[in-house]
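[agent] plan:
  1. take the single chain provided in the ticket
  2. run structure prediction with default settings
  3. attach structure tokens to the ticket
  4. add a short note for the reviewer (M.T.)
[agent] executing step 1
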Amino acid sequence: MIYADIILPLPLDGLFTYSVPEGLAAQVRFGVRVAVPFGKTKIHVGVVVRVHGEAPQGYKVKPIMRALDAEPVVTEGQYGLWRWISDYYMSPVGEVYKAALPSGLKAEDGYKPRKELYVRLTSRFSTARALHVAFDMLRRADKQRRALTEYVSLAYGEDAAGDTLPAVPAEITREELMNSAHTDVSAVTALVKRGVLETYEREVGRLNSGGVPHPERIKPLSGPQRDAYDNIVLSFLQKDVTLLHGVTSSGKTEIYIHLIQQQIDSGRQVLYLLPEIALTVQIMERLRSVFGSRLGIYHSKYSDAERVEIWKKQLSAAPYDIILGARSAVLLPFSRLGLVIVDEEHESSYKQQDPAPRYHARSTAIMLAHAMGAKTLLGTATPCMETYHNATVTGKYGYVSLTERYKGVELPEIQVVDVKDLRHRKMMRGPFSPLLLTRIREAIERGEQAILFQNRRGFAPMIECRQCGWVPRCEHCDVSLTFHRNMNTLTCHYCGFTYTVPHECPACGNTELKSRGAGTEKIEDTIREIFPEARVARMDLDTTRTRNAYGRIISDFSAGKTNILVGTQMISKGLDFGRVSVVGILDADSMMNYPDFRAYEQAYMMMAQVAGRAGRRGRRGLVILQTKSPDVPLIGQVVNNDYASLYADLKSERTAFRYPPFRNLIYIYLKHRNDDTVNTASIELGSLLRSWFADRVLGPDKPAVAKVKTLNIRKIVLKLEPGIDRREVRRYLLMAQERLTTDKRYASLQIYFDVDPG
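[agent] step 2 finished; step 3 output follows
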């Protein structure tokens, strides 16, 4: 008897063994999907990872029901990466499989190839003489005659003029014929009924061909860019990973393009990762103009069927040479990977949060490249501390700096405005200082553009009763509700639940409810009132839910159709707008005061990145940075673009308190509907872990948001020094997890791990 070990898309550890029926023995092999029974009634689609003759002991083995593929859909290399993700991030391999494969490959009938209807002459009318007869037949049917004339012109072109027709006509879709003949489906249907034309279906891809590659469109590098390029190539001779630390608008993308062409010329593939879908819009246009059909795009805004087709193309004999994508693109199959580019490597959105696996795409990309003998380039103007430490202190990574903006444009001037003083003197107009409004008006009058950055969406973070101070909170989560005025709803940004706005306070009956604070929606409304002549757009999660929304907002702003762009951190990530002369950072304090050890690091990154959108082509830009704390050292570091000083300050702080990059963190989360149960369980787990890990354990504590989707939460922090045996650590943690989750007192308790939290 032959058996197969199979991964199932379930949050359960290990593989599942099934017997292979004799009739399927030739089909069942590594990487092939199979349908298998699970439990009494369920059927799952799993992936075969081992075929063997070792009969399992202790239970009755069920047979595989059917094989779904003639060829493998998962490669050996991918499975190796899945196992690394599962092991390192402490997540069952079934969850990795579930995250990696598009939905259409995880169900038996989940993917249907796209088919299109084509038309052609029937065999009866496929000669020139027979065609003359057909036209005679249609003397009184003008629409049909016009449709047939157009078909002959499209299918045979000038060759249809003679006494014979070419043996192989061009393939014409029914849609193409109707559009070209300016007719409807009835004329084509009538020709089919007469036996002149016949229709047939053909499978067609959903993917855009991208056009012909144009390597001649690659721009020559400037002197500083050429130096950086040469230093990267030299670094790759010694290191597998290199950090390109280049200031904003230094032209890192052009360096990437030269490196990509080098890889293509040597027959290798490139994976180009970006943190946000918004970024792919601009860079996609630039890459496609150069690399044409050699470029594939992969991210979550694409339909599942499109993602399946990209996956299958990557497994084919003619895969894309370049894949441009967000986080999930690192899980695609590659056969000859030569280079991985992780652009804006500092971005926290590379870290998957929920659902599991909670992997970091940057670390995963480095492991993927290492496994395939490829190099990794990490690019950013504001490196994360771990990357900078690895590049400049430990020597684990290579380091290349690019300190000049393209064409010598100066970094923007940053003027700090003390809004605390202005509010005291009642000089603020809502969230805007007089200086910022003046500079915006001047920019608009010059035909230039402005960007306003507020890292909070919605109209207002909360509403409050003027009389008793009541604030509406989510029934399912431990957070106040955000007011969205356009939809007139109160929304929880954690569970997504929406509530109608009350007409009166349920606590005291007062009808005066005021909004507190300002989100992007309120900023947009207020700026429209102040500048009624300006065209204003907003880019945040609420305005970019549809697939093409990013592209529309970005292209309108790039083309100058919009004067002012209001947005959250989406607008800070590498976008290139040539007419932006003014950037307003409306509330620096909300970023600095976030309760997280990375708050200052991430605040610096966001402010430096959004400041970099100003003055990019030919002239110096201006940034107005509004804060209540102008004397905080971080503000001076942003103004002076002084990353080295930021690193020095944070280094001493993190060394003292044992945080990355000097320790590795694992967060252990416990969740339960009953607060007392999760509290007791967390105290017990904390004591158990302390008996093993001593003072490396912190907590348990309530996180900043201690209840989400009706589940109460506790958090334990584990701080691990370099060199500790991570396999032993994971073994003890999984043992502790099993001990608590199998205890009857803690039925339905959830325990999960967040390794290297973002």
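[agent] step 4 note for reviewer: Residues 281 and 733 are 42 Å apart (CA to CA).
[agent] ticket updated
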